[in-house]
């Protein structure tokens, strides 16, 4: 195999905020694919907030990354060598062995680049998109008339969750972390209201939702969750998707002090992980693919150039909200 | 009408722990019942933790008690005068206008004292019993093989929740607030394990449930909820019924610092209020009435004598866990 592949390995488990020194750039020769394998030249790799959890030791919902081993996650690219009966050279595929230039994989999913560019299959048509779809419809059980609040509204998941709710006729309120993001949420994503959480969540949410909210799609945790519990109407539902505000915490972050509202307002808080919901991919693709084809969905990507060496900083920046829409590294 | 009735009125809204001075003993003449009304001479009245919330001003799931007006809640007694077509003198009925010796009511439920003494219809066969049943089966969605943790296990609700789970074949762990209660939970209620929460919740729960828990029936909130989140297995469920540990809090109590476990373990936390679930009364009565008839359910009552004047202190003591099983005042 004529390829060498640069990759990012975990050098040390981050304490609090990840540092560049927690990552190590390395290189390896790419072996010929064995039977049932293929080699993919990656075009884009994904950095996602959930990866922060995998950098910690110990039990999580996924096995932790191993020190000295390459990181992994979503990537999309072209098959350049295949001993896999269902894939041929030239296929564009999504797979889960990113953080490297060439990936040798046994399982992948072909993507339809007539529908959207390959990068979209890491975002609006990929894992973040399915997360938004499942969280809103299955976990939060969206019902007619619900007022929906989405945090991280300019992010890969939140931007789609809000747009799906809008397209289904709901009033949608979003929060994000800068004036520019708020403009994007209002002007491009057509949320009904949006605010910068740096100016306080509780008061602004109350102003935006004077009659309360029925669904909260939580990407953020912390102060946002407490404010949402205060504003939820009776029988409201929270899809607990992520908590980026606390992923770098070095001591246990405060929990919502008003958790008793769950009893008094008969709320349902439900956590979920998209990988449990692969069965919903066809329905998701049909609905969201349809919106895309009709031009009814906007999706933004924040693409970082510089290849694999740029990935650690892209990930660090992601945790600070440097992205609008899906954060990707171009390889 | 030849009756005068003593009653307890709300003198002031408690700040933190209720004080005797927050209550006022008063007397009134009982008028003849109007058409559609009946007069009940109450034999027992209930004091329940939820009443603490109604003593506060402002929005809750129920209208607050009014200052200067009598309190109300579950009571059982005998109809002594009726202008109601479905009730006759001598009927034994449960109704919601307790905290007084005689109640003039328009709606009540006849009880079958061949099944259990009248007082039981304020406990094991009444609102607390239905709460346990609905919380365990409908809210927590009890499933085969679930390991169940119940806090407030010696209380009116917890004692029945644990016993229903046991009778359905589950491993059941309970917490309560004294060595005597723990003995009761183990010896009379036949829980598999039980511990005194004063000696710490997290460690004792881990010892009692080395393989984790699947359902947590929360009557207590606070530290218990945090410990349960830590021990819940993937796809675990929490029936959030009450939070007696924080009802007297004068500042917002800390929330569970590990709330992110709801995401990583795909937990469902669901609050409920029994009055939303009256449709389950027939199924509840059939199952739990059957257990009672067969002698398979133990139920304890803590009965306070002294009549209506003793009710405020009984309520105050209830919030300190003075009861084992259902707390009642004999009128």
List the helices and strands and how they pair.
The structure is a homodimer of 331-residue chains.
Chain A: E1 4-10, E2 23-29, E3 38-46, H1 51-54, E4 75-82, E5 92-95, E6 102-105, E7 109-110, H2 127-139, E8 147-150, H3 156-167, E9 171-176, H4 179-188, E10 193-196, H5 202-208, E11 213-218, H6 222-231, E12 232-240, H7 261-264, E13 268-271, H8 281-293, E14 301-304, H9 311-319, E15 326-330
Parallel strand pairs in A: 8-9, 8-11, 9-10, 11-12, 12-13, 14-15
Antiparallel strand pairs in A: 1-2, 3-4, 3-6, 3-15, 4-5, 5-7
Helix pairs in contact in A: 2-3, 2-8, 5-6
Outline:
The structure is a homodimer of 331-residue chains. By secondary structure, chain A is α/β, with parallel strands linked by helices.
Question: Would you kindly provide a written description of the structure presented here, covering whatever features stand out?
Answer:
The structure is a homodimer of 331-residue chains. Chain A is 25% helix and 25% strand. The first copy, chain A, contains nine helices and 15 strands. In chain A, the strands form three sheets. In chain A, strands 3, 4, 5, 6, 7, 14 and 15 form a seven-stranded mixed β-sheet that branches. In chain A, strands 10-9-8-11-12-13 form a six-stranded parallel β-sheet, with helices on both faces. The longest helix of chain A is centred in the middle third of the chain and has 13 residues, at 127-139. The relative contact order of chain A is 0.16. The interface between A and B is medium-sized, with 35 and 35 residues.
């Amino acid at each position: 195999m004529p390829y060498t592949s640069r990759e990012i390995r975990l050098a040390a488990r981050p304490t609090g905020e990840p540092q560049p020194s927690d990552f190590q750039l390395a290189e390896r020769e790419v072996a010929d694919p064995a039977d049932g394998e293929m080699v993919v030249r990656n075009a884009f790799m994904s950095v996602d907030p959930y990866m922060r959890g995998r950098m910690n030791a110990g039990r999580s919902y996924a096995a932790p990354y191993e020190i000295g081993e390459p990181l992994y996650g979503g990537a999309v690219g072209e098959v350049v060598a295949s001993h896999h009966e269902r894939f041929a050279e030239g296929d564009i595929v999504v797979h889960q062995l990113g953080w490297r230039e060439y990936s040798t994989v046994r399982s992948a999913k072909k993507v339809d680049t007539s529908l959207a560019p390959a990068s979209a299959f890491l975002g609006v048509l990929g894992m973040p998109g399915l997360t938004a779809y499942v969280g809103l419809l299955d976990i939060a059980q969206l019902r007619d008339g619900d007022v929906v609040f989405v945090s991280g509204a300019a992010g890969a998941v939140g931007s789609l969750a809000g747009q799906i709710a809008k397209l289904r006729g709901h009033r949608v309120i979003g929060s994000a972390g800068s004036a520019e993001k708020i403009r994007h949420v209002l002007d491009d994503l057509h949320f009904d209201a949006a605010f910068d959480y740096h100016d306080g969540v509780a008061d602004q949410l109350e102003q935006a939702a004077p009659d309360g909210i029925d669904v909260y799609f939580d990407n953020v945790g912390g102060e946002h969750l407490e404010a949402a519990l205060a504003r939820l109407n009776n029988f409201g539902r929270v899809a607990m998707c992520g908590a980026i505000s606390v992923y770098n915490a070095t001591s246990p972050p405060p929990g919502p002090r008003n958790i008793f509202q769950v009893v008094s307002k008969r709320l349902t808080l439900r956590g979920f992980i998209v990988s449990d919901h692969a069965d919903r991919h066809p329905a998701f693709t049909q609905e969201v693919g349809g919106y895309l084809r009709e031009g009814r969905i906007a999706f933004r990507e924040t693409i970082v150039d510089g290849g694999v060496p740029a990935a650690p900083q892209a990930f660090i920046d992601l945790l600070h909200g440097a992205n609008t829409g899906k954060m990707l590294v171009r390889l």
